[in-house]
Amino acid sequence: MHERTHRKPSPPKTTPAPARAGRPTREQARARQEALLECALSHFLEKGFEAATIEAIAANVNMTKRTVYARYADKTALFRAAIRRSTERLAATPEVIAATRADNLEETLVNIAKLRIALVSTPEGTKLQRLINTESYRFPDIFQTYYDIAALPTVQFLVGILEGETAAMRLAIDDPLLAANVFMSMVVSGPVRFILSGNELSPEDIDRRVRFAVRLFLNGAKLR
């Protein structure tokens, strides 16, 4: 009599679970954030705050409106963030600002003024400044944001120079911070307004205007 052999049943076949999409890395999330702000800025620069829409911005970066709103409460918050990011990107580094120091005071002041003018004169700098000028009546804080990030570090550097010159009895300045801001208005603002109005200034014209204004400033600040 033959014994019947029993075969072990085969284990049931299982279908592997679909791979779950992993969460984006920190670098990927940062890149997405940068892309969103870059796209938002382009829309605001091209269309202005009123005409730009979250829907169009989200579509351009392959995001949903929900994703954008998860990062920014509304269009105003996105606008402010885009302005800040662009300002940070355009602002001169401490090393670039420090490199304006020359062998004499007049050349140092000329270099400082030209640095500020050059930052506004770039295509992106001009567009950003025009946007801020246009929308600052609606959002006064964006003007302060621009000043704090793009202008104040240079103003503070100039304050240190004016304090040193006053201490050395080469200038007579009672309020170095006020004097530094007056310098920016007197020497920088004129050429900048000319450029923002759509007119071109050659490097020779900028140099002539800046040097003339710097000499006026120094004549007013010299020790008597």
TrEMBL record:
Keywords attached to this entry: DNA-binding
Residue span(s) of domain HTH tetR-type: 30-90
Annotated region (Disordered), positions in chain: 1-31
Name of the protein in its database record: TetR/AcrR family transcriptional regulator C-terminal domain-containing protein
Biased composition (Basic residues): 1-10
Residues annotated to bind DNA: 53-72
Alphabetized InterPro entries for the sequence: Homeodomain-like_sf, HTH-type_TetR-like_transc_reg, HTH_TetR, Tet_transcr_reg_TetR-rel_C_sf, TetR_C_Proteobacteria
